[in-house]
Amino acid sequence: MLLLLAFCFYLRFIQVTPLALDPCSAYISLNEPWRNTDHLFNESQDKPMCDNHLNGEWYRFTGMAGDAMPTFCIPENHCGTHAPIWLNGSHPSESEGIVQRQACASFSNNCCQWSTTVDIKACPGGYYVYRLTKPDVCFHVYCGHFYDICDLMECGGTCLDTGDCVCSSGTVLGPDGQTCLDENECELDNGGCSEICINLKNSHRCDCGKGRVLGKDRKSCEDIQGCQNSNGGCSHTCAPLGDSYQCLCPRGLVLSEDNRTCQVPVLCKPSSIEVAVPKDLVGGLELSLTNSSCKGVSNGTHVNINFNLKTCGTVMNVVSDKIIATNLITGMPKQTPGSNGDIIIRTSKLLIPITCEFPRLYTITEGYVANLKNTPLEIMGRNRGTFPFTLEIFKDKDFDEPYRETLPVLKLRDSLYFGIEPMMRVNGLETLVESCFATPTSKNDEILKYYLIKDGCVSDDSVNINFKGSSSPTLQVPVFQFCRQTT
Ligand SMILES: *[C@@H]1O[C@H](CO)[C@@H](O)[C@H](O)[C@H]1NC(C)=O
Ligand SMILES: *[C@@H]1O[C@H](CO)[C@@H](O)[C@H](O)[C@H]1NC(C)=O
Ligand SMILES: *[C@@H]1O[C@H](CO)[C@@H](O)[C@H](O)[C@H]1NC(C)=O
Ligand SMILES: *[C@@H]1O[C@H](CO)[C@@H](O)[C@H](O)[C@H]1NC(C)=O
Ligand SMILES: *[C@@H]1O[C@H](CO)[C@@H](O)[C@H](O)[C@H]1NC(C)=O
């Protein structure tokens, strides 16, 4: 019997998380003095720090790092790094348990250039623990802050002798009854702002989205009417176009999705990320990635940097339905031969964050008769990037020898052995076969489908699914026949 079936698999990368202990006792202390908001980062003296060793554990700020994360915007070049991370939201009370808050990294006058979610818990004893994930890019650091200790109430003639603390305006008493935490004015009525409210230490300010500016009242936002106003919101050139205007980019750069910001072109391939930086933009700078041994190569017009998901310090992150790979290109002046190797001059800085997004869900389909080539199956995606998988049918349950040159001729009660393997493994992620169905012809979009796996569960008792190694599912399926007559 010749198989005239098509099998279709839906695969999703799932996150593997370890078992949880009580975070109030099982935490890791962050106590580095440079982590404190009072620590200014001076580029000519220090190397920027990066929290890329954090891995989703629970952390507590102690010692010279501070007591808790700041809940107001920290400007760039604080906390020992370029982009300090602060908490956009209030600390919880003990009774609230574990809460989620947005954490923002500020950079180039944007208080929330990058953001992530952190879990926070108020512990008995008046301290907080935070579940912190690895930032997408370097150089980002989670900040600690020393909060003020409240003054004992100065008793005039009228007060009761309770010994209660009083915090100054703009701050509220923390759970330990001593620390004055910042009051987040933005949580009440968005701080009166019509768009973005930014909490500052003991105060707040309003801001507007791209292409809009703050009005005279400093609260509402107005549209930018043309290029004369804030350059039309364009990062580079603004040019009038009929009644409106458009943003233009210098040669070699491309407009990003917001139609206003120019960016370097990035090509996201599963085995390589290719960045071409126009030579005009970098001048005499030498470009390197987070791992500084990965350097750019000049071809006269461009400096090209090629790397992949596993090399050069690339950070992988999972955000809802996407896998995001990031790295950072840094430009430094070249060291001239003969100069003292110890002295480096950092006259100008060039930082280009590189991001590639890959979907987490994949459809793999094997029109079995038509496709018996020894080539990996390439899955087409939209213009972002996808990971390829191989799908092979093996001769027996050892999954060693695939059918390649010859078509298998199988009888009912024989078994089919499927092996699915992602060509690119992502640490901390496993592949889940979400569904698998067969159709009676070599097309996978037939109306008649028979599900072997549905919603991650085996829906036919005879199917045997196994995980050989860490993330390559194998499937054993007894041969079956569709009752309908096929031609
Ligand atoms: C950074 O350090 C250099 C060298 O010690 C010093 O001259 C400069 O003023 C410092 N810059 C800032 C912003 O503190
Ligand atoms: C902080 O969070 C609020 C509420 O989620 C949001 O509206 C605001 O834009 C955030 N602030 C910044 C600076 O992004
Ligand atoms: C950018 O421009 C394109 C083409 O003119 C348009 O389809 C798209 O909606 C614009 N995007 C934004 C964010 O304005
Ligand atoms: C940086 O990359 C080089 C060459 O690829 C590698 O040998 C080295 O271990 C990497 N360093 C770090 C800190 O990852
Ligand atoms: C240099 O590299 C860029 C990007 O890969 C390419 O577009 C350009 O044609 C190359 N220039 C030369 C002179 O080879």
UniProtKB/TrEMBL annotation:
Residues of the signal sequence?
1-16
**Origin: domain of life:** Eukaryota
Keywords in alphabetical order: Disulfide bond, EGF-like domain, Signal
Q: Name one GO molecular function term.
A: calcium ion binding
Gene3D superfamilies from the xrefs? Laminin, Zona pellucida, ZP-C domain, Zona pellucida, ZP-N domain
- Would I find Cell wall biogenesis/degradation among this entry's keywords? no
What InterPro entries does UniProt report for this protein, alphabetically? Answer: D8C_UMOD/GP2/OIT3-like, EGF, EGF-like_Ca-bd_dom, ZP-C, ZP-C_dom, ZP-N, ZP_dom
Domain ZP residue range list: 267-487
**PANTHER family (UniProt xref):** ENDOGLIN/TGF-BETA RECEPTOR TYPE III, ONCOPROTEIN-INDUCED TRANSCRIPT 3 PROTEIN
The protein's name in its UniProt record: ZP domain-containing protein
Taxonomic path: Eukaryota, Metazoa, Chordata, Craniata, Vertebrata
